[in-house]
Amino acid sequence: MTAEAREAGPGEGSLPDGGRPLNIALLTYKGNPFCGGQGVYVRHLSRELARLGHRVEVIGAQPYPVLDGLETQGPGRLSLTELPSLDLYRQPDPFRTPKRDEYRDWIDALEVATMWTGGFPEPLTFSLRARRHLRARRGEFDVVHDNQTLGYGLLGDVGAPLVTTVHHPITVDRQLELDAAEGWQRRASVRRWYGFTRMQKRVARRLPSVLTVSGTSRQEIVDHLGVDGSRIHVVHIGADTDLFSPDPSVPQVPGRIVTTSSADVPLKGLVFLIEALAKVRTEHPGAHLVVVGKRAEDGPVAQAIERYGLEGAVEFVKGISDAELVDLVRSAEVACVPSLYEGFSLPAAEAMATGTPLVATTGGAIPEVAGPDGETCLAVPPGDAGALAAGLSRLLGDPGLRTRLGLAGRERVLARFTWARAAEGTVAHYREAMALSRARLRPRGERPLAAVPAAPAAEVVEPDPESRATC
């Protein structure tokens, strides 16, 4: 039975939203759940979609996503299909040259050629493999959900209506890296690496339905990618509030500040936090920083640690379990998000969910998540080490303020930013995309099939006016 025929009536197993369970293909060209927001998004959204009663098949390339509850979601409810690339950036041999017998087809040759010439091929090559895979399975899925691949392969017919999530335009990352690049050779290298953004801009303009995670990202998609705003819908994502929760039995470590960041990504603003830490330690000598992320052995962050004599006051941790991460955040007196820009900021939501007080910049959509300055967080301008230092010092020196902000922060996350709410809003847009697809395919003059009305689509949510002004 085709997806169109299945949609004709509720059938068995109708869900609380009035619709029937859906068969969903969720695409992710990179699925690492511990590094980068896209892998986290796939991991948590797929789990919550399955909990709502839908069948979710995640189709991804290396690093393959880790999915929660594969054994407990019910038969066929949640599954992973591996669609392998050549894995050219794997550790410990990134930018490797594959052996002759690893090549399978022309897509593999294109992937290697693009890498050899300094470009990043995976969004394009994954999209081509995904199109081939999906067309071979036409009729199996009600909807295809692309997680920011935005590759040419997803234009045209992929066997089911397409919905795409754009977390934020990668052109923002490109510009920040160009601004931080020193010398023409480095700038040329950055431009070549981000060459795929031209493709993503062209593809995004032709997509029928785009989801994004914040009002700020919505406006960036309009401004940077030229997408018609009427086709962009905001569905906030969130924290796993069962996992990221307060636990008074975990002792706080005096002076501990925790952040989640990659040292070699300029938009994360870690270099400004390192400079701020040096200032903070003049008032609070025990202040120290734990960075959840990979340490760069050279570059601006490493140079700043050496310049300010902070070798013993900054620790990098990676590869820790979820439970270890949560306890690390709980143990901190302060959490910090120093980013110059974020499309949403999961680290902010997760820290707030544990009840850990937050100092965050006003970069991108962070105010939308963290809330008003002085009410649910302390807010500072992005790229301002002095303001970061002042906020951190204020919180480290005021236990009462830490308690108040921690409690208010968790309440904000529980009310606005949970994965269950994200899944419900996403399904509403799946049903809307399916209805629009049926309308386009229906012969002129044919009466529509009787169908259960789709759940109302989630509203486009703009940032709170108070947050926009103050945080």
Task: Describe the model.
- It is a single chain.
- By secondary structure, this protein is of the alpha/beta class.
- It folds into 2 domains: 3-238 and 419-441, Glycogen Phosphorylase B (Rossmann fold, 3-Layer(aba) Sandwich); 256-416, 3-Layer(aba) Sandwich (Rossmann fold).
- 40% of the residues lie in helices and 12% in strands.
- It is built from 17 helices and 13 strands.
- The chain has helices at 3-6, 37-51, 106-116, 122-136, 170-180, 184-193, 196-204, 215-225, 270-283, 300-307, 322-331, 346-353, 366-370, 385-396, 399-416, 419-441, 465-470; strands at 23-28, 55-60, 78-82, 143-147, 162-165, 210-212, 232-234, 256-260, 288-292, 314-317, 334-337, 358-361, 378-380.
- A 7-stranded parallel beta sheet has the order 3-2-1-4-5-6-7. It has a 6-stranded parallel beta sheet with strand order 10-9-8-11-12-13, sandwiched between helices.
- Helix 9 (270-283) links the parallel strand 8 and strand 9.
- Helix 3 (106-116) runs antiparallel to helix 4 (122-136).
- The longest helix has 23 residues, at 419-441.
- The protein is globular, with a radius of gyration of 23 Å.
- The N and C termini lie far apart (51 Å).
- Mean pLDDT is 89; it is low at 7-12 and 449-471.
